[in-house]
Amino acid sequence: MLQFVSDWAYGQFGIVGSVILFVIGLAALIKGGDWFVDGSVGIAKKFRVPELLIGATVVSIGTTLPEVMVSATSAAKGIGDIAYGNAIGSVICNTALIAAITVAVRPALVNKKALSLPVICFFTAAVFFAGVSYIFGGFTRIVGIILLVMFIAYMVITVLHAKKHPEEAEEEEEGGKDLSTGKSIVLLIIGAALIAVGANFLVDNGTIIAKALKVPDTVIALTFVALGTSLPELVTAITSLIKGHGALSLGNVIGANIFNIVLVSGMAVTIAPFPLPAGKLIGGMNASLVVDLPVMFLVMGLLTLPALISGKLKRWQGVSLLLIYAGFVVFQFVS
């Protein structure tokens, strides 16, 4: 049905109709994710689930739901390029744009002990993901299952570590108002529905736009789709910056990046395995292997390693990351 709507809009209004539905899809994803998180937290509080578990599970997964739904929908429709590009592109966007803005505007101190665990988990998952890409040139269902197991392991390790080291847990976020059970359930259902509709509109119309402009699906996914699905993280980062909690966004970004590798990619590959996208070549080599994956490691290393050494985020890191992201986006469209 939603595919019919997208095809009809393109047939009646051309690429303008597809762009409008693409934007509507983004809006539905953002608002749906917001309501889904609010509803989930409301229900969790009613059942007296510890705040620690809410933050480590429901909220973290909730902000990554747009990426999960877009990649899963893409994979199910046989568009592996968007599923792959969205996950990698979101990691690069989260790091080199979203985190970079907060670091460039307001550098902050970081807790090296609290930072070390998620950084180790990210690079472990990223090395596995990249290794599969370079060695096998594609992703099988077994790889997807392994990534999902890594996701579960990360969640368990995070919760156990936070319980063992409560002094490392940051209490900077302000708690939201309590919601009634009925309102929480309504928000949960409507949020999930909006996410599903938004993901379909985003994938269908992003594909139509890419074909109309003769741009590879991977490029659209690495840029527009990745930025769109990363908007919840962007909102969180800006809110943290306004409240004077610049370091808070770093934890959110790293957590979201881990989920993009193990949950987003894992879900998509498990649903429908796909080969490494080959829509763009550089010197006869797959551009993803030459540019996308190396840039992902570069920006995460530039953001986290200096912070682990000095315990500080510095302005030069944010500026450097923004320049890298600008170059990355330009490369996608001009090469």
State the main characteristics.
335 residues; mainly alpha; A middle domain of Talin 1; two-stranded antiparallel ribbon; 12 helices; 4 strands; globular
3D structure, described in words:
The protein has 335 residues and is mainly alpha-helical. It has a single domain, classed as A middle domain of Talin 1 (Up-down Bundle), CATH 1.20.1420. It has helices spanning 2-13, 15-46, 51-76, 80-105, 112-136, 141-164, 181-212, 217-229, 231-242, 246-271, 287-310, 315-334, and strands at 138-139, 274-275, 281-282, 285-286. The strands form 2 sheets. Strands 1-2 form a two-stranded antiparallel ribbon. Strands 3-4 form a two-stranded antiparallel ribbon. Helix 9 packs antiparallel against helix 10. The radius of gyration is 19 Å and the shape is globular. The two termini are 36 Å apart.
This entry's quaternary arrangement is: single chain
CATH architecture descriptor text:
Up-down Bundle
Output the number of helix runs.
12
Number of E-state strands = 4
The general outline is globular
What is the rounded Rg?
19 Å
* CATH homology superfamily name: NCX, central ion-binding region
Quick summary of this structure?
With 335 residues, the protein is an all-alpha fold. Helices cover 81% and strands 2% of the residues. It contains 12 helices and 4 strands.
